[in-house]
Design a protein that fits this description.
Layout lengths: L1 H37 L5 E5 L3 E5 L4 E9 L5 E8 L5 E7 L2 E2 L2 E4 L3 E11 L6 E11 L5 E11 L11 E4 L4 E4 L5 E9 L5 E8 L5 E6 L8 E4 L4 E9 L7 E10 L4 E10 L5 E5 L5 E5 L4 E9 L5 E9 L5 E5 L2 E5 L4 E9 L7 E10 L4 E11 L2 H27 L1
Parallel strand pairs: 2-10, 12-19, 21-28
Antiparallel strand pairs: 1-3, 3-8, 4-7, 4-9, 5-6, 5-8, 9-10, 11-13, 13-17, 14-16, 14-18, 15-17, 18-19, 20-22, 22-26, 23-25, 23-27, 24-26, 27-28
Length: 407
């Protein structure tokens, strides 16, 4: 009877789970069937995300195009662009290839791209494009229109002709205590030889020097032949206390006939430095086995970047205990200082002598370890017990000496 009762108890959750699964499947099927009943037999549409856009000059325009099937049946839909204005090209594409038709499942959509491209010198004005979507059997058709307005492009101010400054890496990134070097190519567009002055401006207290590529000497000017170029290096050493961030460096090249400039960017991530030690500078501690010895240590952020989540750990003999208060530091800003209380408890079985205990403060990037010498001494209670034993022994000897001396 007991075995039968247990079997019934085990099977009941299985039956309940199966019933719940059947209910969920039936409900999902019912919802799907109900949704399908609400859809028409066949329905398609095509529409552009933006039906009116503004462009300048001879620039091509890309517009997102959506093809939707709102019917119960899957559809093969052909696409084409009609009413293409003169001096324009237009086609439908996706990724790297053109598209003339697309298969769309029931109650789904597909996103394509309508690209319109003007020929050189197209006149300002409004241009209309029509996109036509039609099912394979031509029974369903949908259209959408896109208006592109071309405005006259304003001429950009002409740069002084005569010198070009080219760099492949205008932005460098690194820690504050690093030395950075930008490589620039100075190209003369003059039809004669010329002497060019080269200067670089950066933040205050930064050390910035200009030198020829692959050479250690510093320069302030260079001679370029007609229509020739030369590579130079801009060496940058940030101010040690500079905060993390982006800093611009402006390089200017000029001569009586030409001038040019280039803006470089240096992104500093800051320096990560962590110092730790004891308040009095001593790295030794005396205590008694089984009892805690207390000391204070400090941690200081001596870098220029904020330190986060500083944790403490220890390297200690077996069965020893080391406790930190607080156990971690959430945030320590540059030049920030924090005092930590440490309790070191030797094991009850520790022998009298000197031991090494490591105290480490670490964050995700750096760490600092303090090596402490812990001297374990015997308890003073045992000293008094020893003195008492010696006194008793002496008293016993005195009594024996007196007693046997009388005989």
């Amino acid at each position: 009877m007991r075995s039968k009762s247990n079997s019934s108890f085990i099977l009941t959750p299985l039956v309940v789970t199966a019933l719940i699964g059947l209910v969920i499947c039936f409900t999902s099927f019912a919802f799907a069937e109900e949704r399908e009943k609400k859809l028409p037999a066949r329905s398609i549409s095509v529409y552009a995300e933006y039906i009116g856009v503004i462009s300048t000059g001879d620039k091509e325009v890309d517009i997102d195009l959506t093809v939707a099937n709102r019917g119960r049946n899957d559809e093969d839909i052909n696409l084409r662009v009609t009413d293409i204005p003169k001096s324009w090209k237009a086609w439908i594409k996706t990724y790297n290839f053109g598209v003339t038709g697309v298969h769309v499942n029931s109650d789904k959509t597909k996103t394509l791209t309508l690209r319109v491209e003007p020929e050189t010198g197209v006149s300002p004005g409004q241009y209309n494009f029509t996109v036509v979507a039609q099912t394979e059997d031509r029974r369903l058709t949908s259209k959408t229109q896109v208006n592109v307005t071309v405005k006259e492009e304003k001429e950009a101010p002409k740069k002084p002709r005569g010198v070009n400054i080219i760099t492949s890496y205008p932005v460098l990134k690194g820690p504050t205590d690093a030395k950075f070097e930008f490589s620039l190519e100075i190209e003369s567009k003059l039809d004669k030889d010329g002497m060019f002055n080269v200067t670089a401006q950066g933040p205050k207290n930064w050390e910035i020097n200009i030198k020829p590529a692959y050479e250690d000497k510093y320069i302030s000017s260079l001679r370029l032949k007609a229509n020739q170029s030369q590579t130079i290096a801009v060496e940058v050493k940030p101010y040690p206390l500079a905060e993390p961030g982006q800093y611009p460096i402006l390089v200017k090249v000029n001569s009586p006939e030409a001038k040019g400039e280039a803006e470089l960017t240096l992104t500093l991530t800051g320096t990560y430095k962590l110092d730790a030690g004891t308040a009095n500078g001593l790295l030794s501690l005396s205590t008694v086995r089984g009892k805690a010895g207390n000391l204070s240590i400090y941690v200081r952020n001596s870098g220029s970047a904020t330190l986060n989540n500083i944790n403490f750990m220890s390297f200690k003999p077996e069965n020893w205990e080391v406790e930190f208060s607080p156990e971690k530091i959430g945030t320590l800003p540059p030049e920030g200082f924090k005092q930590i209380e440490v309790a070191i408890t030797p094991a009850e079985q520790a022998l009298v002598g000197d031991y090494s205990v490591g105290l480490r403060a670490e964050t995700g990037k750096i760490s600092k370890t303090i090596e402490m010498r812990v001297t374990v001494k015997a308890s003073t209670a045992w000293g008094w017990i020893g003195i008492g034993i010696i006194a008793l022994v002496m008293a016993g000897l005195v009594v024996l000496f007196i007693r046997f001396g009388r005989r």
